[in-house]
Design goal:
The chain is of the alpha+beta class. 14% of the residues lie in helices and 31% in strands. The longest helix is centred in the first third of the chain and has 8 residues. The chain is globular.
Length: 94
């Protein structure tokens, strides 16, 4: 995900993946030979399960050659607080 995609998806409690993005997930450009896959999950509530393992926790994601790393913690006024820890360009698919 891009930084903007992460912020939109993570900070929306009832994020509806099917409405926002459709039933299938397209592979990144560097994996162009791969077929689209069926999306799993429905409303983003599963991301809260990470708090069972730690508070805070980190999320590392990348898209189009840009990697971002966030720290996610329980919020006070909002359910989550996210902080960008690192961003770098020219990241190759792994």
């Amino acid at each position: 995900m891009t930084e903007a995609q992460f912020r939109r998806r993570w900070m929306t409690i009832d994020y509806d993946r099917l409405v926002e993005e459709g039933r299938q997930s397209q592979p990144p450009a560097e994996l162009g030979g791969m077929r689209p896959r069926e999306a799993y999950g429905r409303n983003g509530k599963g991301r809260q399960a990470a708090f069972r393992f730690g508070d805070p926790y980190r999320v590392r994601t990348w898209r189009d050659g840009v990697e971002v790393v966030f720290e996610v913690r329980r919020g006070g006024a909002r359910p989550f607080e996210i902080m960008l820890l690192k961003s770098r360009s020219d990241v190759e698919a792994q």
